[in-house]
Structures
1.
Amino acid sequence: MNFTTDIFTQFDKKWALLTAGTKEKFNTMTISWGGLGTLWNKPVATVYVRTSRYTYNFVDENEYFTISFYPEQQKKVLGVLGSKSGRDMDKIHDSGLTAKELADSVTFEEAEVTLVCRKLFRQELDVNNIPKDIASALYEGDAPHVMFIGEVVDIIRA
Ligand SMILES: Cc1cc2nc3c(=O)[nH]c(=O)nc-3n(C[C@H](O)[C@H](O)[C@H](O)COP(=O)(O)O)c2cc1C
């Protein structure tokens, strides 16, 4: 299992899709906040999901989630998946991406790389522990983020 990247551009500039559920019932959304590292001697990926996202319910309820990265030509599709909600429409069908069923989760055929993550930890970010300027810019009147940490159990390449 090997993945070499510039972590400061991988999420922030390239973006990713966070997907959870089963092939029959899943949802996906665009993310640009996240991290890769080590915790409890395991390779881990961390994502931050506002509780207002439809995808939040899927990540919260399932043991696995995937983080998938795409070639530049899919950026527009990621923009749409990051601005429409699966709660309101079949945005995945409209995106043109092809869902790919994995043993415990879902990704898309078009992904360059998919990190398969087994959920190890969840915790809502406590606004009281966030610097005031950030808290007022990002959390006043908006749902909190829940941090999910997953063990990276597989890395799938196209
Ligand atoms: C570039 C980009 C990055 C985003 N990153 C995050 C993120 O890290 N966490 C988050 O909760 N929402 C993030 N969003 C917002 C969700 O993708 C967006 O609200 C989406 O419509 C939620 O879809 P859903 O309701 O189907 O889950 C991002 C959106 C864009 C366009």
Note: The chain has a mean pLDDT of 97.
2.
Amino acid sequence: MTVLDKLAAASSNPYWSTTVGDSTACPPPASDVACDLAIIGGGFTGLWSALKARERYPDARIVVLESGKCGHAASGRNGGFCAPSISHGVSNALARWPREAETLIRLGRENLEALAQDLDAFEIDCDFELAGKLNVAATPWQINGLRAMAQNYNRFGIDNTLLEGEAFRKKLDSPTYMAGLFEPNYGLVNPGKLVAGLRKCCLARGVAIHEYTLVTALRATEQAIVLRTQDATITAKKTILATNAARPLLKRLRTAIIPVYDYSLVTEPLSEEQFTSIGWTGSHGVADSGNQFHYARKTADNRVLWAGFDAIYHYGSNCDPSLLQRPETFKLLAQQFAQSFPTLANIRFDFKWGGIIDTSARTTFFSGTACKGRLTYAMGFTGQGVSASRFAALTMLDLLEGAHTERTELMMLRRRPPPFPPEPLRAVIVSMAQKRLAHEDRTGHRPLLLRTLDAFGIGFDS
Ligand SMILES: Cc1cc2nc3c(=O)[nH]c(=O)nc-3n(C[C@H](O)[C@H](O)[C@H](O)COP(=O)(O)OP(=O)(O)OC[C@H]3O[C@@H](n4cnc5c(N)ncnc54)[C@H](O)[C@@H]3O)c2cc1C
């Protein structure tokens, strides 16, 4: 079977969308609206914000304005890895915020625990499981990287096991990978079910959701924030901007993130024998350690999601819906899957789709206020927002209250990441950085450009 044969029947819808029943869209506002809190964006960040706001303010008029259907963007298109981290991992925290790394690491773990408790309390069934993550190495220098990672984990009391030889092959048996670091306290969710569950909880608690409602303009007055949609004006005492990779409505945020496309395949359902043939008998997720990395996980109906590697930036931060499909990346992913798992070389792929990552130069989200404290925002999750979006929501609610909490004082959130330069320099720098990241993956040597960016605390990742 050729690669193209294997992809021929694949649907271009995200697999996750097929695991949730159709729900009737919530219509746009029929007339002008006045509310206490308007939330722009109906992904994880916006919906957690609405739900947590409802807990704090039982009588408030809370409105979510979403340009598509809730979860149609990154929140319904991701891998569902639910990290015990708000800082894009331990090494990133240590490299960029050494003085607050310990706090960031603790808050990340606490956030995952609290998220699991929230799922129970709100009765959101999204196949959440503390399934663990196997970080795998494909080269000797990546094994050294895993050893360094283990040392950092041990320093902060994070459970981990370095696996080599037979012990590794019992977790994953692949000619591509040589060793792995297993971390048991890492969650996996079905993101489609999570976003649908959050939406349902919001509606059940009297949050007004308006879908297919694009906010086109935002203006501050002395008493309120005024939002324009196609047909209505929304006047809100406070506003949350949870628009992720979309062009921010607030001008000052426009250079802080760039949209980067990431792609996924999902296989046909596999048998127990097929999983045994690749040593993958547990329910853990897998992610390789390169700069251009794959991530893989099982689904509840025994498929494999295989994703990542290419991270595609389009000139001018272009975000056209047609870019959510990229045949050359799907072909490459299918070829790499066959190389990594030769016993599965002939399996078919049933789904292929892409999503947009809001990449920030520090690879973590940032937050802050504008319009005299009436507006707050959180964005820049850079491929690790499934769990961090909950933390971001709580931070934004603290900020709107003008409260000083452990969350609001974090340097990680308060300092905006270094800006991306305007075009054409932006595209040139992204392309130069990507070429050098690939070079490092091939050779184990970090080129001068990347070391220079490191020195300024600037990174590029998806
Ligand atoms: C392919 C892919 C794989 C990923 N894998 C993982 C993973 O395994 N683990 C992980 O932790 N993270 C992962 N991520 C990142 C994660 O999905 C995001 O960080 C997270 O979903 C962000 O949630 P959000 O609500 O901020 O953004 P979104 O889900 O993108 O929601 C933002 C919403 O705002 C709406 N919007 C934008 N502008 C307007 C406007 N003007 N008016 C009205 N509505 C507007 C959009 O329509 C959108 O629905 C991945 C992302 C992608 C794309």
Note: The first helix runs from residue 3 to 7.
